[in-house]
Design brief:
With 270 residues, this protein is an alpha/beta fold. The protein has a single domain (12-267), classed as Ribonuclease Z/Hydroxyacylglutathione hydrolase-like (Metallo-beta-lactamase, Chain A, 4-Layer Sandwich). 41% of the residues lie in helices and 17% in strands. The protein has 11 helices and 13 strands. It has helices at 27-34, 49-52, 55-61, 74-78, 81-91, 95-99, 172-184, 201-219, 224-238, 241-250, 253-267, and strands spanning 12-14, 17-19, 41-43, 66-70, 110-113, 118-119, 122-126, 135-139, 144-148, 153-154, 161-162, 189-192, 196-198. The strands form 3 sheets. A 6-stranded mixed β-sheet has the order 6-7-8-9-12-13. The protein has a 5-stranded mixed β-sheet with strand order 1-2-3-4-5. It has a two-stranded antiparallel ribbon with strand order 10-11.
């Protein structure tokens, strides 16, 4: 549950491992699901607060917990001041309500990844695009790929998909390459943080690619109001009222615009 809604943020538990525990504001739901189980490790796809914000609180509760994270994200878990400053610029006074407390993680708990490793029965792949430090985890036993935000946001039971593009690290070309990389792994299913499992792997990645290309081209002229109007109108056409509300919660339109506007400004050298 996030802000009273289910089917917005998923934390996946696999053989005593937790992939993306979510924000501290939803930690109670995760702990209830874990019951008496003590997790062995956290596998973080990236450090955005909706995916990793509860990590420090979990380490405080379980001091031997290992936290796997890409090398570019690890320093911001050890000292989250810069991460929190960036988030506060986006969320302002809503920070605590949305994400809760964010605690630093001791260096001895962090396991730094570069991509290409095998850890805890998973193959790690570096999948930049949504964030430069994004990784995915392929379960070598089950064949599922835990892809964070790389395969987009899709709220079941429908398949309408949105590419989440918050600032500051959106890279459309890198993201499309990452989608190709994931497809090349031939996973059995995609496990999405937002939300659940996608059995139709190729079709889901095609929907992600289409959304990313469409929204990035809409943002290119630099007209915020036109972008937001088109984005919200298309979302309303693609999803019913209940799912549309959850999509808007997971992919706020203003952040979608800000990430793509920054991408084009950097890319075109403006």
């Amino acid at each position: 549950m996030h802000l009273g809604n289910d089917r917005v943020i998923a934390a996946h538990e696999v053989r005593g491992l937790v992939v993306d525990p979510g924000p501290e504001s939803t930690l109670g739901t995760l702990l209830e699901a874990l019951g008496d189980q003590t997790p062995r490790a956290l596998l973080l796809t990236h450090i955005h607060l909706d995916h990793a914000g509860a990590s420090g609180s979990l380490v405080r509760r379980f001091p031997s917990l290992r936290v796997y994270v890409h090398e570019a994200g690890a320093p911001h878990l050890a000292d989250p001041a810069k991460l929190l400053g960036s988030a506060e610029r986006l969320y302002g006074p809503e920070m605590e309500r949305l994400w809760g407390e964010v605690l630093p993680i001791p260096g001895e708990n962090l396991v730094v990844l570069g991509g290409g490793e095998e850890v805890e029965g998973f193959r790690v792949e570096h999948t930049p695009g949504h964030a430069g430090h994004h990784v995915c985890y392929l379960d070598l036993d089950e064949g599922d790929a835990y892809v964070g935000d790389t395969a987009g946001v899709r709220i079941p039971p429908g398949d309408y998909t949105v590419a989440p593009t918050p600032p500051p690290e959106i890279d459309v070309e890198a993201w499309l390459r990452s989608a190709d990389l994931i497809e090349g792994l031939e996973p059995r299913r995609l496990r999405l943080t937002h939300f659940g499992a996608a059995e139709d792997v190729g079709a889901q990645l095609d929907r992600l690619r289409a959304s990313l290309r469409r929204e990035s081209e809409r943002a290119r002229p630099g007209d915020r109001d036109a972008f937001l109007a088109a984005f919200e109108a298309e979302l309303e056409r693609g999803a019913d009222g209940d799912r549309a509300a959850r999509l808007l919660q997971a992919v706020p339109p203003e952040q979608t615009w800000l990430g793509l506007e920054r991408y084009w400004r950097k890319r075109d050298g403006a």
